[in-house]
Specification:
Keywords: Iron, Iron-sulfur, Metal-binding, S-adenosyl-L-methionine
Distance between the termini: 56 Å
CATH class of the largest domain: Alpha Beta
Number of domains: 3
Cofactor: [4Fe-4S] cluster
Strand order of the largest sheet: 2-1-3-4-5-6
Number of strands: 16
GO molecular function: catalytic activity; cobalamin binding; iron-sulfur cluster binding; metal ion binding
Pfam family, one: B12-binding
Helix content: 25-40%
Protein name: DUF4080 domain-containing protein
Number of helices: 16
Oligomer: single chain
Strand content: 5-15%
CATH architecture of the largest domain: Alpha-Beta Horseshoe
Largest sheet: 6 strands, parallel
CATH superfamily of the largest domain: tm_1862 like domain
Length: about 500
Amino acid sequence: MNIILTTLNARYAHTSIALRYLYANLKEYQRETEILEFTINDNIHEIVEKLLKNSPSVIGIGVYIWNALEVSTIIDIIKKVSPETIVVLGGPEVSHTPYRVDFSKADHIIIGEGENKFYNLIDSIKRGLIIDKSVDNEGVPVLSSLNMPYEFYSDHDIQNRIIYVEASRGCPFKCEFCLSSIDKKVRDFEIEKLLNEFQKLWDRGARNFKFIDRTFNLNIEKSNKVLDFFLGKDDGFLVHFEVIPEFFPKSIKDKITEFKPGTIQLEVGIQTLNEDIAYRINRKMDFEKIEENLRFLEEQTDAHLHVDLIIGLPGESLESFADNLNRLGDMTNCEIQLGVLKKLSGTTLDRHDKTYKMIYSDLPPYEILQNSDIPFLKMQEMKRFTRYWDLAFNSGNFKQTIKKLWIDGDIFSGFYKFSTWIYNRSKTTYQISLNRLSEYLFEYLTEVLDFNKTEIADIMVADITKINGRKLPGFLREFATYIPPINKGGNKDIGKRQARHRD
């Protein structure tokens, strides 16, 4: 057989660890299999052309919330022009019903973790056996029995893209908005075997590691060994972990303090600081411990932090969300990732639909449209708020300038007024260049808030030129008192975004 494993990643820099797991565990069928990765921005017809070029017998496609609509179209085209090709789907978007995107033309759908299931399916197809459309004939694999996927990252991947890795699967928590809450048990990979794989990646030149574990710091012994692995390396790498905010034992804290600037990034899931809302969505939180740990990470480490907040949770008003943002802004100077609530199939979030009049889009990413606390028009404003927040605040491009929007300490109100103004000014939330955004921010601060133009220009120049090699927007030259020379060597950090956030 000729087998193709494929998916559409959200960005070129991303890689699919799932495809490589399937490939690593195909045993005798591996030599007949090829991995082809695309992005959601690629032309659909050209994707299908490349998939069908060598007349494959089977095409396996990884389906996610960001590529579900494109995959549906790809299946439709394949079945029209090459109906004999067997299309197999897998991934989180097809592992839980109801399906809100049409995948009916696929031949088989693998439910859940697919390493063993996909091999068995291919073997059954090879032997001509009758197979159900839905493949869910066994439980989760024993992790120690799986072949590791890491040797199947190409040299090009290692040099140019993020290398996704994992030390565990599953999550012990039951947050109702999250698919990980379905996995009640955390399973760990054999740590020594895993570190050996990481060393091989390192020896090949890998320097950008992103762990996909939902609870990296849950297992203290494993976490310390992984941290020790990276602490034993030279600078010039970036490693990303998703961590539980309440649980930072001393041994882990001590190791995090040893990481140099630009080498470690922590994603800290908060979602809400409202105790009643957290209880309502089954999210157990120790708010006192969260604040203590956030302040520790902010004040005593050089870790780059991402802290998450969600808009639209059942029963949470805008006033409550504003309080969340203001409190987080007081605790930390890090990136605050603002997301809009999504209702994913398989979660229990729908139990709140009637009580809080939760209405969601039926199209990916299934975002909330309105609820009893936030009507549709206001929710639209908040979606624009999150987009501008990412461009202006989380980007780190205006690290000091942006604080002029809330000199009274009310972050939410200050930025809400700016986001409303900039939308009325630009009529868009996309394709806003750094130069254009600089002009908007300068105009708002100096003409609406009446700050001195020289003062704002000087702060803005310092922000923008923090990254070597950047060209300064021309309009600032008229007002700034000092224009630093351009270092054409550029910035050599792996994570330029992280570098922009350093003081």
